[in-house]
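Quick note —
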Amino acid sequence: MTPCLSSFKRILIQAVLASAMLLAGVAVAQDSARSSPDSKIRNIDGVAAVVNTGYVTRKEIDDRILALQKQGTKLPDPVVLRQTIMERLIIEKIQLQDAEQEGIVVSNKELDKIIGDIASKNKLSVAEFKQKVIASGSTFERYKEMLRDDIIISRFREREVEGKIKISDAEIDNYIADRTRAMTGGGAPRSAPAAPGSPEEIDVAQIFIPADSNAGAGAQADAKKKAEALLRDARGDVDFLQLGAMAAKDDPKIKFQELGYRTPDRLPQLFYEAIRNTGGGQVANSVVKSPAGYHVLKVLDRRALAAGAPQQAAPQEAASNAPQNIAITQTMSRHILLRNRPGLNDQDAERRLAGYRDQVRAKTADFGELAKKYSEDGSAANGGNLGWMSPGDLVPEFEQAMNRLQIGEVSNPVKSEFGWHLIQVLERRDAQLTVDKQKEFARAAIRERKFEQAYQDWIRQLRDTATVKIINIDDAASSPR
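Predicted structure written out below.
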């Protein structure tokens, strides 16, 4: 199973395992503190926030920061970083508490099996994997505890969010129709436009970059800069829905939302003023500022509200939008993957892959043999070969870099959510994207988009209904009170 494939379910599962691997690098010294007579006093002194009946300690925050530093990650301002980490820990505590109330558990036997699977994927025995965890600075028992928490949170999230997402056949057909027009260069609107002065409905999508009105000038400026950069990207040859989803994935604070068809009176007044004269398929001329932050808007469609107009256009529209096989270009490529992990920063990964690239270009090494030896992907045994891939099968960063290569050409190192890749294109061919394949892709893409929005709504609901008291997050655990 290759890490490049953009299947939502697989990404979710891998995210759990990856997060567990990242957490393995956290140094832990809490066990000894728990056993001492004055542990309660020290715990109270070290509490950063009380969360319902539990708490987040300042040491937990320090450990998370240390793990990020070990990865070589570029970190924000220390104050902002501590606040962000603490909020993440608060959400995790709430999820674990609620999951326990719902009876979601992971038995020791099941946990041992999962650890065995992780060790196998890393081509290690369980004993070797255990030694690697200990060598990273953690205890194996602590690692198991953190892994158990990750799995419980993932299952709770899957049940409460993903299991409740519904996707209609009409949504799938509309998504396919939009992609077909984009791939074939068509630009016709989906619906019959309203006559001048007639009632209409407008389908608007937004990318929202939060910036509270009380935030400092620097935070406001940063949010505005992000919004203007996204607006520039949206004006280019890019799918707005994918742009929004990627922005939300890169920065969880950014929200992407399709508002659906609404009459002007049901749109926020700020939004309607910004897109009043914007046609279907076009982006608003400028970023919209609201008290909550900055909004990048795109009008996906405008249609007549009059009862007769949609009915008259329906038969013709249905015929033109009916899913059908479309011609595509498939690519066969292979890659060498260095995964994101503690102890390997971006600079080192990029340097290593650049060395492999130079060897292949100088013909002093074979790409496939290097992949077998160094790639950290399931495709390594096959020389990194990913097989025939259609548009949309791979994560965007990988696919865009691959599409720029000629047959036989080797890329520069490419960064994706999975790590760093070196890519070589082996062959291309013309093929037909079947209706079933289009529906499979559409369902996965719609589910991922809906999941992002539903997940953020769920997190806000959990946070709003919890009892949280912030005590002290500004100091490190070792600092005196």
